[in-house]
Amino acid sequence: MPHTLQSLLTQDKAALESALALDSSSAHIEVRCLLQAVLQVNRAYLLTHPEQILDAEQQARYAALLERRLRGEPLAYILGEREFYGLNFWVTPATLIPRADTELLVELALQRIPPPPPQPSDGTTSHSTRPSKNNGQVAGYPASGRGSKFRVLDLGTGSGAIALSIAHARPDIEVTALDASQDALEVARENARRLLVQHESAHISTKPLVLSEVEGSMRTDSCEVAVIGNVRLLRSDWFAGLADERFDLIVSNPPYIVDGDAHLMQGDLRFEPHGALASGTDGLGDIRRIVAEAKAHLNPGGWLLLEHGYDQAGRARELLLQGGYAEVFSARDLAGIERVSGGTIR
Predict the structure, then answer these.
(1) Residue 344, beta-bridge partner list
(2) pLDDT tier at 164 (50, 70, 90 boundaries)?
(3) Is residue 181 situated within a structural domain?
(4) Cβ distance 19 to 65 under 8 Å?
(5) Beta bridge partners of 306
(6) What's the longest Cα–Cα distance across the chain?
(7) Contact, 187 vs 94, CB < 8 A?
(8) Does residue 240 fall inside a structural domain?
(9) Which of 53, 119, 237, 304 is buried deepest, with most CB atoms within 10 A?
């Protein structure tokens, strides 16, 4: 028997609630998103056409998507996208799913970037944010107009959500986004092309990094570099590919779940890349490494900001203090959880 949009919303909301233990509101939103994806319509369309019946092809596509969700596959992977900081990001199982909690890290980063300088009265454009010591020539960036910009480094960029949100909000700065995973960097590159470059039609690309009018690509001795807009994408195991480069701000949402934690086998985490989630017997292995090595890559006055687990703020502050950082702090997310900790060097 054919089902209307309204009947599908009602019956399949109940199915998701039962199968995945979702609350009624979340289940309703998920069914709505699946229907919107199949019909290629917005929310308002569903509200104004509750009596519409899916044709055979649409019904088959919808049923297939719903079955994937009922098996527990994350909605973001099924739809191939997730909203973060007001931007729409392409996501795949090669990357973590951007989460609202991480928007705090972006907010704190943007607060620490000086405002753009006033525009010259003659209408010309100023390219400098503030002097930045020991930057030198950046591999992959054009030689002119780059050396004095405020520089941000995002460690373990994944989909690029943090780096690209910062870069999108502040096109006057330089952002370097690195990851050890080539598959993750391909996702970040496509997101950079979608968000930082104006296209008549966006598309998904899985081609190797290539040189084009809007995107530069080159090889260094140890890694591949791509430049899109004001973002440089770099394949690197944490700081390994950076030589002696320095930055004014370093941010990271590193792995911080304890190896073997039961949560890794629950919910969306079952489908996300394990290497981007877990870090040692106490979950702090990568945070220790970042805290220890970041100082060599920070300019005087530069900041290190790290996301961590709900119960790791105290230990993160200890590591920062032991590492010689000043003005060490932790900040709470919207749920009141200490989610980000950081410090500066003098």
Answers:
(1) 303, 326
(2) very high
(3) yes
(4) no
(5) 252, 341
(6) 70
(7) yes
(8) yes
(9) 304
The angle that helices 103-111 and 161-169 make with each other, rounded to 10 degrees, is: 40
Phi and psi at residue 342, to the nearest 5°: -165, 175
What is the pTM (predicted TM-score) of this model? 0.83
**Lowest-pLDDT range of 54-63, 91-100, 144-153, 162-171:** 144-153
Return the closest-CA partner of residue 79 out of 33, 127, 136: 33
- Does an H or E element contain 333, and which? none
- Verify that 207 and 97 share a domain, yes or no: yes
Other C-beta atoms closer than 10 Å to the C-beta of 53 total 13
Pair type for strands 151-155 and 174-179: parallel
Query: What CATH number does the domain containing 322 carry?
Result: 3.40.50.150
Residues 98 and 45 in one domain: no
**Structural domain of 320:** 93-344
Reply yes or no on whether the pLDDT at 219 is more than 80: no
| Residue 262: strand pairing partners | none
Confidence of residue 148 (pLDDT cuts 50, 70, 90): confident
Count of domains forming the chain: 2
CA 21 to CA 57: how far, in whole Å? 29
Is residue 283 within 8 A of residue 306, CB to CB? The reply is no
188 with 64, same domain: the answer is no
Tokens found for residue 277: 């989630």
Residue corresponding to tokens 């966006």: 202
Name the nearest CA neighbour of 249 among 297, 180, 212, 214. 297
Tell me if 109 sits within 8 A of 166, measured CB to CB: yes
Is the same domain home to 184 and 236? yes
Residue 78 located in a structural domain:
no
At position 64, the amino acid (one-letter code) is: A
Instruction: Identify whether residues 61 and 183 lie together within a single domain.
Output: no
The verdict on residue 268 lying in a domain is: yes
Do 211 and 294 lie in a common domain? yes
DSSP state of 173: S
Helical ranges in 238-322 per DSSP H: 285-294, 313-322
- 177 and 322, same domain (yes or no): yes
pLDDT in tens, 252-293: 999 877 776 666 566 766 666 776 766 667 889 999 999 999
- For 282, other C-beta atoms within 10 Å of its C-beta total 14
Q: Where are the alpha helices (DSSP H) in the chain?
A: 5-20, 24-39, 43-48, 56-70, 75-79, 103-111, 161-169, 182-196, 285-294, 313-322
